[in-house]
Amino acid sequence: MKAKYDFSKGERGKFYNPKAVFDIPNSERKDVGPKMRLNNKIAIVTGAGRGIGKAVALRFAEEGAKIIVDDVNDTNGTETVAAITNVGGEAMFVNADVSNAADAEGLISEAVDAYGTVDILVNNAICSTADVLNNNWEANLAVALRGTSHCSDTVIPVMQNGGGGSIINIASVNGLIGLQGIHAYSAAKGGVIALTRSMAVAHGKDNIRVNCICPGTIQTEVWEPMLERNPQILDEITPWYPLGRIGQPVDIANAALFLASDEASFATGAVFVIDGGLTAGNHQFPI
Hints:
This protein is α/β, with parallel strands linked by helices and about 290 residues long. It has one domain (about 40-275): 3-Layer(aba) Sandwich (Rossmann fold). Helix content is about 40%, strand content about 15%. The protein has helices at about 20, 50-60, 75-85, 100-115, 130-135, 135-160, 185-205, 225-230, 235, 250-260, and strands spanning about 40-45, 65-70, 90-95, 120-125, 165-170, 210-215, 270-275. Helix 7 (about 185-205) links the parallel strand 5 and strand 6. Helix 4 (about 100-115) runs parallel beside helix 6 (about 135-160) and helix 6 (about 135-160) runs parallel beside helix 7 (about 185-205). It is globular. It starts with 17 loop residues before the first helix and ends in a 13-residue tail after the last strand.
C-alpha cells in the first residue's frame, strides 16, 4: 500500500515549497521594517539534504544567513542549495560524513575558506532510519554523538577567534523519556543532551552559546519506511500529543532560528523541548 503522506509535495505544510517559504514582503531587502535576524551570518547545517536539516537551512537563509549545506547525499544536498539560491539566497554544498573526524574538519575548513568564519553550527545529522530501527549502536553513536563532537570541537576555535557563536544540537524526546525499543538512538540523543550542557559550561567564557532542541514526532522523510509498513502510523501517534497534531520541520526550524539569533543571547546549556506537549504528561490518563 502506498504511504499516505507525500513528503516531496510538502503535504500538511508548506515548508517543502521553497517559493512559499521565501515569498515574503520587501523581497528587495530594502531597509524598512524589522531587520533579518541572521543577516550575513555564516551557518553550517549538517544533514541538511532533507527533513529538519533542510528546513533549518531554508529558514536561516530566509533570515539572511549564508548557508553551508552538509549532507552525505549529493543529490539531496545540491537540491537544498538550489532551493536557497534560486530565490536569491547564498549557499554552498559540502559532502562530509561527520562521523569521520577528518571529514568534519574538512567541512569547517571549507566554510572558513569560503567565508572567513563560522557564526552558527547546527548539528543535525543522523544515521539511516534502518540503523535507528535496528539498534545499530555504532551508526547511532558515530553520527549523532561523535559527529556532534567532531564538528563542535573543530568549529569552537573558529568561533573563539571570531568573538563567539551559537551551536545548536538536535537531540530528541527519545533522550528524555523511554519510547519504543530504539535504545541506541535514545542513548545517542541522551548523550547529545549531556554533551550540550558540558560544552555550554566550558565555553560560556568564549561567548559561545551551546543549546539543544528535543523534537517530538516531526513529519519528515525519516518516517517513510515506517509508513510503508503501517500507512496509518502518524494518525495513530497523533492522539498522544496534547496539541492534537504532530510537528512539521518548520516548527523545529523556528526554534533553531531563535537560538541562532541574538534574541537568545542569554540562553546556553538549555534543552528546548519542541514536542507538542508529548513529554509534559499523559493527557489521556483517566482520573
